[in-house]
Amino acid sequence: MPFSATFHDFYSKVKDSLSEGTFAKLTLAKTIGNTELMNIYVRPIIDENVLKLELKFKFQKEEIIEIYTVDNAFNRLVAFINNPFLSAILFTTEFDLVYKLNKKRAVSINDQSPTFANASPIVVEFLAGN
Questions:
Q1: What is the average pLDDT across 78-92?
Q2: pTM of this prediction?
Q3: Cys staple from 122: which of 37, 44, 103, 108, with CB 3.0 to 4.6 Å?
Q4: Cβ-proximal residues to 130 (8 Å cutoff; 6+ apart), any chain
């Protein structure tokens, strides 16, 4: 997986935003061509008193939901970088972080002004209880 190192850097910001209570959502998008899998939406959930991530795989005709620990979600998501997704966007209350591959598959990671003013209520609830 040639993109695992750069995506690891990006994913460390995902983990930071979860632990700091600023995480709003994570989306993998911008597919290569017309693919069955259109997006992956990631949101936090609390399962057995543990903060986990729900990965919603949005296909053209169905949705599939999988649940992973925060660390294990990385391995599931990195497999989709460059096949079929060219971008991942982390939305936090402090900034939006965009992981993008260009046509030559060069990686760029840039931050932008935040889209969301509020963090995921699940993250806030989890941090308040721990």
A1: 94
A2: 0.93
A3: 44
A4: none
